Each structure stands twice: as C-alpha cells, then as structure tokens.
C-alpha cells in the first residue's frame, strides 16, 4: 500500500490501525492524518521501538491487511 492510499482512505483505516497498535490514542491518529511517516513516528514513540522497526511493522501490516 502506498502513501496515497493510506492518506486517501485514512478515515476507513483508522480503526484497523488502532486495532493493530492499541497504544495509539485518538489524538495520535488525528495528528497522523494518514501520513505514513507520522504514523511510523507515533508507533516509535508509543512502543519504544526504533523508527526502522516502526517502518518494518507498518510494511508487514500493509502487506497482511491490504
């Protein structure tokens, strides 16, 4: 899934993102606004992982979910 798809379908994807990364708050998701790089940053922040690991988690989620 590319960046445009995430941004274009953000309202529909928010629930799936929150299901996958339950530590993300509604405020976090509002800040992200579908931007992949911001989502990776929030995953990094909430889960204490490296940005590289957050990107890998996103890639795995994108492949398995869509």
What does this structure look like?
With 66 residues, this protein is mainly alpha-helical. It has a single domain (3-65), classed as Protein Yjbj, Chain: A, CATH 1.10.1470.10. Helix content is 77%, strand content 0%. It is built from five helices and no strands. The longest helix is centred in the C-terminal third of the chain and has 15 residues, at 51-65.
Poorly predicted runs are none
Report the CATH C-level class: Mainly Alpha
The beta-strand count equals: 0
CATH architecture group name: Orthogonal Bundle
Largest sheet: none
The total domain count is: 1
- Kindly report how far apart the N and C termini lie: 7 Å
Element string (H = helix, E = strand): HHHHH
- Count of discrete alpha- or pi-helical segments spanning 4 or more residues: 5
What's the short version?
With 66 residues, this protein is mainly α. It has five helices and no strands.
SSE arrangement:
Blueprint: H1 3-8, H2 10-20, H3 26-32, H4 36-47, H5 51-65
Helix pairs in contact: 3-4, 4-5
């Amino acid at each position: 899934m590319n960046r445009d798809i995430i941004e274009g379908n953000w309202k529909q994807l928010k629930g799936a993102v929150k299901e996958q990364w339950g530590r993300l708050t509604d405020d976090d998701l509002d800040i992200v606004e579908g931007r992949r790089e911001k989502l990776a940053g929030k995953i990094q922040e909430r889960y204490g992982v490296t940005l590289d690991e957050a990107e890998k988690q996103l890639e795995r989620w994108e492949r398995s979910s869509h």
